Amino acid sequence: MPPQPSGKAVKKAGKAQKAVLLKQVHPDTGISSKAMSIMNSFVNDIFERIAAEASRLAHYNKRSTITSREIQTA
C-alpha cells in the first residue's frame, strides 16, 4: 500500500484543482487567496446549513438515511 499524503499536501492539491477549474471556466479570470478563503468559508457554511436541515427532515420523517429528496427539500 503506498504511503498516504500529508494533510498539507492534500490541501495544496485541492487549491491547485480549484485554480485549474476556474481557468477552465473563465480563462481570463483569477482569484486572490483571500477571496478564495472567503468563498471556501461561504461554501462550507451553506453545506453545513443544508446538511443540518436535511438531517432534521429525515428525523421528522423517522428515516435514518438522508436521501436526495431531503437534500432537495432542504
UniProtKB/TrEMBL annotation:
Q: What GO cellular-component annotations does this UniProt entry give?
A: nucleosome
Q: Which domain of life is it from?
A: Eukaryota
- What Gene3D superfamilies does the database record attribute to this sequence? Histone, subunit A
Molecular-function annotations in GO: DNA binding; protein heterodimerization activity; structural constituent of chromatin
Instruction: Kindly give the Pfam families that the UniProt entry links to this protein.
Output: Histone
Q: Which InterPro entries match?
A: H2A/H2B/H3, Histone-fold, Histone_H2B
Specify the Core Histone H2A/H2B/H3 domain's residue ranges.
Answer: 21-74
State the SUPFAM superfamilies in the record.
Histone-fold (SSF47113)
The UniProt entry, under PANTHER family, shows: HISTONE H2B (PTHR23428)
Q: Which family does it belong to?
A: Belongs to the histone H2B family.
Q: What is this protein called?
A: Histone H2B-like protein
Lineage, opening ranks: Eukaryota, Metazoa, Ecdysozoa, Arthropoda, Chelicerata
